[in-house]
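Weekly sync, protein design subgroup
Attendees: M.S., D.O., the rotation student, P.L. (late)

Item 1: inverse folding check
M.S. brought a backbone from last month's batch and wanted to see whether the design step gives back something sensible before we order anything. D.O. pointed out we never logged the input encoding, so this time it goes straight into the notes. Structure tokens as presented (639 positions):
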């Protein structure tokens, strides 16, 4: 696999787009002309071009996509067709300057790779070969599954799947941040290849040549949008999604969020708030921290900071022009015919998730899939069975940033691949790309912001890294090699995680028993004085809370003891009264009191039956009354 060929091909797609700026199918036409020139075809068919595309450029185009590109090449006057074979028009093909464009992009790639290798060697004392550097770059930009986003059921991969290591992503992210500040030309080339990757996959969409008209469309946002727009995942993501929201609004799209989606967001933040309140507890489970809580911890958010986000959430959405709405009423009989098999949809979503090797079931919150099913089902109901190949005629769309959810819904509804229509659920990249490709300035801007957001995310500690790190500090504590104070600092300090990322390059494989000790050494530097002061404040707060808790518990114990004493006294008095009553009843033998005789007979029968059935006696009765009264008084006190 020649990675450099693939990267150059993506850069050439972007260069062609910059030159033509008409229809993105046209960006592939020069590739076909080059293949004809190189192979000196007199005639050829679709399969030949399809195979050569992969060999020469590293791009695995499906047959129908290759056919579309060849048809466009013919339409542009480079070919003619006779007897089922395509015949090149040499005079027209010779006008193509593809080789010059390729050589220019190759020079840019060579420069960026050599600069990257030097940057990593000088800054991190790590050696990268040019091939390893190219693989790291392609793996970094291939974070989103564009084949499933744009291609639906396509089996062929346009680009090879490269799963970059955490450390490779860390190094590329650091280099991107450096390039953006220090060398704008290098940064622009990185942005160009990300746009080229979009162009390469956009052609998978069966209606990719349509001019997108979205006026009148209603878009319902998934919960991920709320985290990005309300800056719960960092300002870099907020900037990128602000751009998308503004683009959608400029197209006269109505933006909404279902109430159950909004409530899911609020409940996650409330859970994070509870976790922040209990974060000083030694038993707190850091290994199960979600992305939002991770962000709060890493950026030293207080409980009041999170409370402010919760309180301001609905108003901020209103400021964006996003309306919180209820889902359709399923009790409305007129809508019953439009309801889908929700259980089948849920099964499809779970199956699609499990097909992904990166899937982690623990990462899903409780009820997450059920709420996704609610949202998708609601869109089906709102569409009332209407299907269209055009966005604006679709009426309603659910937009998510979860590519697997979009793929699952597409699998659920497109059981017959021949009947294409705009999906009920689409990825934000899907709809955003069609908007931005009609405005070249926007596609540059949004991809710059998205790549910076991706770089920011790549230098945050991963779940695997944090889990391994916590395992090591727990071992040190058990061996008494670190104090309670050091243990607290290493577990809960946001600064500790930042140093952890730097020490390990974001890779859990680089964590060992020495890592926590090295982090503590870093902590001793003068730059950590503010963290020490913060720790002392937090420590004092924990001590005050613990002292107050112990005081309340002692008061509660004293009250409970008094309740038990009072209850015991009361039941003894009651017991004596019953004994006296029995004694008085027995006086009936000495005095001719018929009523007392009847009462004694009744009591004798009652006590005898209780004794036979339950093994009852007066002493047990006293104990049971005592326990019952004591328990009731304690419950009243606690509540």
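Designed sequence read out in the meeting:
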């Amino acid at each position: 696999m020649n990675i450099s060929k693939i990267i150059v091909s993506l850069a050439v797609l972007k260069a062609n787009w910059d030159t033509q700026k008409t229809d993105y199918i046209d960006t592939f036409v020069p590739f076909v002309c080059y293949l004809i020139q190189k192979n000196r075809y007199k005639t050829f068919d679709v399969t030949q071009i399809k195979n050569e595309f992969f060999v020469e450029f590293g791009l695995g185009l499906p047959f129908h996509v290759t056919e579309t590109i060849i048809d466009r090449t013919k339409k542009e006057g480079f070919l003619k067709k006779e007897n089922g074979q395509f015949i090149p028009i040499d005079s027209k093909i010779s006008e193509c300057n593809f080789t010059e464009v390729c050589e220019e992009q190759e020079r840019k790639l060579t420069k960026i790779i050599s600069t990257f290798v030097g940057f990593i060697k000088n800054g991190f004392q790590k050696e990268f070969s040019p091939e390893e550097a190219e693989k790291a770059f392609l793996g970094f930009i291939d974070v989103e599954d564009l084949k499933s986003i744009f291609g639906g059921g396509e089996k062929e991969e346009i680009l090879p799947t490269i799963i970059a290591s955490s450390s490779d992503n860390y190094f590329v992210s650091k280099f991107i941040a450096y390039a953006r500040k220090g060398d704008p030309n290098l940064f622009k080339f990185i942005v160009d290849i990300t746009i080229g990757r979009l162009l390469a996959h956009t052609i998978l969409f069966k209606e990719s040549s349509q001019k997108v008209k979205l006026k009148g469309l209603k878009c319902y946002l998934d919960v991920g949008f709320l985290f990005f727009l309300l800056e719960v995942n960092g300002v870099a993501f907020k900037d990128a999604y602000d751009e998308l929201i503004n683009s959608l609004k400029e197209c006269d799209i109505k933006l909404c969020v279902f109430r159950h989606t909004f409530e899911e967001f609020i409940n996650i933040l409330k859970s994070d708030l509870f976790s922040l309140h209990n974060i000083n507890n030694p038993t707190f489970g850091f290994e199960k921290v979600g992305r939002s809580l991770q962000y709060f911890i890493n950026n030293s958010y207080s409980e009041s900071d999170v409370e402010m986000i919760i309180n301001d959430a609905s108003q901020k959405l209103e400021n964006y022009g996003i309306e919180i709405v209820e889902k359709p009423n399923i009790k409305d009989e007129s809508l019953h015919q439009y309801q889908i098999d929700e259980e089948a949809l849920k099964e499809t979503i779970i199956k699609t998730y499990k097909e992904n090797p990166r899937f982690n079931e623990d990462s899903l919150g409780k009820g997450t899939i059920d709420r996704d099913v609610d949202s998708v089902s609601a869109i089906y109901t709102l569409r009332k069975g209407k299907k269209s190949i055009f966005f604006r005629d679709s009426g309603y769309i659910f937009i998510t940033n979860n590519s697997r959810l979009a793929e699952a819904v597409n699998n659920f509804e497109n059981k017959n691949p021949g009947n294409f229509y705009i999906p009920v659920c689409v990825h934000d990249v899907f709809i955003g790309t069609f908007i931005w490709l009609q405005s070249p300035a926007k596609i540059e801007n949004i991809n710059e912001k998205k790549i910076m957001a991706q770089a920011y995310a790549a230098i945050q500690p991963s779940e695997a890294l944090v889990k391994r790190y916590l395992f090591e500090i727990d071992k040190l504590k058990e061996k008494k090699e670190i104090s309670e104070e050091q243990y607290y600092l290493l577990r809960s300090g946001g600064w500790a995680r930042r140093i952890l990322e730097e020490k390990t390059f974001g890779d859990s494989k680089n964590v060992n028993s020495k890592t926590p000790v090295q982090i503590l050494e870093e902590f001793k530097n003068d730059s950590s004085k503010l963290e020490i002061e913060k720790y002392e404040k937090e420590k004092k707060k924990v001590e005050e809370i613990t002292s107050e808790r112990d005081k309340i518990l002692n008061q509660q114990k004293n009250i409970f003891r008094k309740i038990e004493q009072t209850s015991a006294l009361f039941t003894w008095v009651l017991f004596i009264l019953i004994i006296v009553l029995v004694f008085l009843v027995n006086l009936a033998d000495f005095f001719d009191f018929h009523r007392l005789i009847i009462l004694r007979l009744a009591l004798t029968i009652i006590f005898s039956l209780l004794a036979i059935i339950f093994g009852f006696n007066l002493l047990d009765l006293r104990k049971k009354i005592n326990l019952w009264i004591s328990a009731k008084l304690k419950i009243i006190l606690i509540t």
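Discussion: Residues 529-586 form the longest helix (58 residues). The longest strand covers residues 254-258.
Action: P.L. to compare against the previous round before Friday.
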